[in-house]
# Entry
Amino acid sequence: MAFSSDRQSLIPSFLYSSSFTSKPLNLHKMASHSSSPAAAASAPSGGFMIQAPNEPGKIEMYSSQFYAACTVGGILSCGLTHMAVTPLDLVKCNMQIDPAKYKSISSGFGVLLKEQGARGFFRGWVPTLLGYSAQGACKFGFYEFFKKYYSDLAGPENAAKYKTLIYLAGSASAELIADVALCPMEAVKVRVQTQPGFARGLSDGLPKFVRSEGALGLYKGLVPLWGRQIPYTMMKFASFETIVEMIYKHAIPTPKNECSKPLQLGVSFGGGYVAGVLCAIVSHPADNLVSFLNNAKGATVGDAVKKLGLWGLFTRGLPLRIVMIGTLTGAQWGIYDAFKVFVGLPTTGGAAPAAEPAKQ
# Structure
């Protein structure tokens, strides 16, 4: 995913702004501010082609270090947040599997507390942490890669015109890979959380699952997982980028690069929360299918629809999932962008920071 530092790169400012301008850059003005007039003179006169900044101690945009930083940010944002909401996830999964016993959110927590004690609220936290850390690494790292890759394929004018399609295509491509990393841990997590006595956690749950279903059984829920996660991630990234763009355009009078970092991170959290609510609604039927298939040996999609009903497939556990996913997604974008700021990168969305001429 790395790009050579001596290769000229088109910084896709159209991905961070609400409009694209084809007005050529004043090269004479650039040359007056550049330490190398020759570099400015060699730039194409019809576009905004510059090299990514390459300063000592600063990560170069779209370099291997950039994608590595985005990958680490994804690990932190997804792994930590999903582990933190394990109690909510536990109740949600049990409401989906056994609605007669887990009738509501409050009664679900009561049943778990009575039967398993306070420690039971975090049953399955290890496969949750490992699975969603792997997913987050691929989700965010590959999204940044594919967003740049598809933008370069389209060219600046088409990428600006169809930027939402680029967000959707980039996020879908990233999630296709990310779910392959997540699926085994998700299968074990659901089985541990919804079948009391099956296993204490990952260490005994994984070998027991493999003995029961075979190694390929760990991927039994991959297609429903794609059905849940790909629409979810497409909505998560495309709506986030659009919402943040609108916030900076209509709600904040100050240009993004002049806003304080805490304000920018607040925008990331708020935009992420709204995006998360939309994600939960779009992906909920597939979430019910994943929980059902991973809980019952030999279960099929037809069995799930028959037992849950079409209405139940769309609504069972939805209010809790809206609260969980809204908070989760807002926190993920906040953590991800906070890590990017920590390593010296700009936050996601909004106006791009002013480009700097390449140093020779």
Q: What stands out?
A: The CA atoms of residues 305 and 313 lie 7 Å apart.
